[in-house]
From TrEMBL:
InterPro entries: Amino_oxidase, FAD/NAD-bd_sf. Probable oxidoreductase that may play a role as regulator of mitochondrial function. It comes from Leeuwenhoekiella polynyae. It comes from the Bacteria. This is Pyridine nucleotide-disulfide oxidoreductase domain-containing protein 2. Interacts with COX5B; this interaction may contribute to localize PYROXD2 to the inner face of the inner mitochondrial membrane.
Length: 474
C-alpha cells in the first residue's frame, strides 16, 4: 500500500482544512471519505423539485468567510464567489415590526431607541478589535496575544445571554434580538457562556456580513478540494474507515469525526483511560430541518425581513428562552425558536426564474424524531401571511435522518457536541492538547475539538498544526 506522511479520515470542512495545512507544509497527505462526495454537511443538492438547489446542511457561512485560516487560502482562484445579503439577519415581531443587524453597528443601534447607546457600548469596540482576538478565541485555551482585548471580550462572553441582555438592555425587542443570535448555541439562554455565541455572531454581521457561497454551500467544498488537489493532495471517496489497519502506513492520522465514532474504529490502540474519558463526551440537542421550493419569496410583513439572508423567529424573550430550555427537558415548544435562510433573494442561480428556496430548522431534543413541519410553518405564517400557500414542495429531515445523511450529526447535533461551559474550550476532554489522543500518532480534528461547531476549519487547522509540530517540525 502507498505510504503517506499524514492520513485524514473524513472530508468535512475541518478534515479538508487540516489536509491543506499539512500539504502546504510539504507533506504527503490523503483524505479518506466514507460517502460519495466530500464536505460532510456542507453540500448542495436538488432536494425538492428540478432546478431547485438546497443546502443539505450548513447554509450561511460568516465564520468561513472570517476564518483566520480559510481567508488566507486562494479560494477565489478555485471558483468560490461570496454572496452578501443586503441585511445579514433580521428578527420580526408579531406587531409587524422587526430589528435588523446591519453591517454598520451604528445603524443597527439606531433602531433600538433607549438601547442605542447600550448596544454601541456592547458591540462597537469589540467589533473593531475582533481581529486582535479572533485567533485566540477560535482555538484552544492559551495565553492570548492581546490580553486586554481578550479580557474585554471574555467578561461579556462568560455571562449567560440572559444576564448580558438584562444588564445592558431595557427594551424587550432588543433583548429578543440578542437572544436570536445567542440561541444558535443550542444552550439554555440562562447557561454560562451562552452570550458568547450571540456576541460572536453579531460581531460577524457588523464586521463581515453573513455571506454564503454563490450557487450553494457545496461550492465552498469544491473550491477547497480543488486547492487541496492543486497542492498534490489525494482524496479517496466511498471508503468508510472502520479499522485503522485498512489504511496505508503514515506518521500521523487525523480523524474528522466525533468521539463516539472514533471509539468505534478498530485498532486505534487508545488507552482504556482515554477511551473511558472520551465515552463521557456529551452531545447537544438536535435539529429538525426543512427545505422548501417556493413559488415566490417568503412574504414577510416587515420589509427588513424581505432583505435579510437570515431571519430569526422568536416572538418574545420568554418564548425563545422557553423553547431552548424545554429541549433539555426532553420536550418541544409549540412556538419554537426557528432559523431561516433565504438564499435566492440574492442568488438566483439556485432556483428557476421567479422561484425561490428557503431553508430552516428548529432545535429539538437529541434523537427526537417529532415531525415539526406544521409547527415551523405555522410560526413563519404569523409574520409572513400567505407563506404556506407558496410552498411547491418540501424536504424534511429529523434527527435520525440527519445522522444517516452525515454520521457526525449524532442524534441531530450539528455542533459536534454540547457547547456548554464545560465543553467549550476543553472538548472533547480536559487535556493539555485537546487534539491529541492517548495514541501519539492519532489526533481528533473535528468540531468536537476547540473551537467547536461552525464552518470555519479552525479545529482542523489547530489539530494539523499540533500533528506537524509533534512529528515533522525540525
Amino acid at each position: 500500500m502507498k505510504n503517506y506522511d499524514c492520513i485524514l479520515v473524513g472530508s468535512g470542512i475541518n478534515g479538508i482544512a487540516a489536509a491543506i495545512y499539512l500539504q502546504q507544509k510539504g507533506l504527503k497527505t490523503c483524505i479518506y471519505e466514507g460517502s460519495n462526495a466530500p464536505g460532510g454537511s456542507t453540500k448542495t443538492q436538488p432536494l425538492t423539485l428540478p432546478g431547485f438547489q438546497h443546502d443539505t446542511g450548513s447554509a450561511i457561512h460568516p465564520m468561513a468567510f472570517a476564518s483566520p485560516f480559510l481567508k488566507t487560502l486562494p479560494l477565489k482562484d478555485h471558483g468560490l464567489e461570496w454572496i452578501f445579503p443586503k441585511i445579514p439577519y433580521a428578527h420580526p415581531f408579531l406587531d409587524g415590526s422587526a430589528v435588523a443587524a446591519y453591517t454598520d453597528v451604528k445603524i443597527t443601534a439606531s433602531e433600538l431607541g433607549a438601547d442605542e447607546e447600550a448596544y454601541l457600548n456592547v458591540f462597537e469596540k469589540i467589533t473593531s478589535k475582533w481581529e486582535s482576538v479572533d485567533s485566540d478565541l477560535l482555538g484552544p485555551l492559551t495565553i492570548p496575544e492581546n490580553p486586554l482585548d481578550f479580557i474585554r471580550f471574555g467578561l461579556k462572553a462568560i455571562q449567560s445571554a440572559e444576564q448580558l441582555s438584562d444588564h445592558y438592555f431595557q427594551n424587550e425587542k432588543t433583548k429578543a434580538f440578542f437572544f436570536g443570535a445567542a440561541a444558535h448555541s443550542t444552550l439554555p439562554l440562562d447557561a454560562w457562556a451562552s452570550s458568547s455565541f450571540g456576541l460572536v455572531l453579531s460581531i460577524m454581521a457588523h464586521k463581515y456580513n453573513w455571506p454564503f457561497p454563490k450557487g450553494g454551500a457545496g461550492n465552498l467544498i469544491k473550491a477547497l478540494v480543488s486547492y487541496y488537489k492543486s497542492l498534490g493532495g489525494t482524496l479517496i471517496l466511498n471508503h468508510k474507515v472502520t479499522d485503522v489497519e485498512s489504511l496505508p502506513k503514515a506518521d500521523a492520522y487525523l480523524f474528522d469525526c466525533t468521539p463516539k465514532q472514533l471509539l468505534a474504529i478498530k485498532n486505534t490502540n487508545l488507552s482504556q483511560t482515554y477511551r473511558k474519558r472520551l465515552s463521557n463526551f456529551k452531545y447537544g440537542p438536535g435539529v429538525f430541518k426543512i427545505d422548501w421550493a417556493l413559488d415566490k419569496s417568503i412574504p414577510f410583513t416587515n420589509e427588513k425581513c424581505r432583505m435579510a439572508g437570515t431571519v430569526h423567529i422568536g416572538y418574545s424573550t420568554s418564548a425563545i428562552k422557553n423553547s431552548e430550555a424545554l429541549i433539555y427537558e426532553g420536550t418541544i415548544s409549540e412556538t419554537p425558536y426557528i432559523l431561516i435562510a433565504q438564499h435566492t433573494l440574492f442568488d438566483d442561480s439556485r432556483a428557476p426564474e421567479g422561484k425561490h428556496t428557503a431553508w430552516a430548522y428548529c432545535h429539538v431534543p437529541n434523537g427526537n424524531i417529532t415531525d415539526m413541519t406544521t409547527i415551523i410553518e405555522n410560526q413563519i405564517e404569523k409574520v409572513a401571511p400567505g407563506f404556506k400557500q407558496l410552498i411547491l414542495a418540501r424536504s424534511t429531515k429529523n434527527t435520525q435522518e440527519l445522522e444517516a445523511f452525515n454520521p457526525n450529526i449524532i442524534g441531530g447535533d450539528i455542533n459536534g457536541g454540547k457547547q456548554d461551559i464545560t465543553q467549550l474550550f476543553t472538548r472533547p476532554i480536559v487535556k493539555i492538547s485537546p487534539y491529541s489522543t492517548s495514541n501519539k500518532s492519532m489526533y481528533l480534528c473535528s468540531s468536537s475539538t476547540p473551537p467547536g461547531g461552525g464552518v470555519h476549519g479552525m479545529c482542523g487547522y489547530h489539530a494539523a498544526h499540533k500533528a506537524f509540530k509533534d512529528h515533522f517540525k525540525k
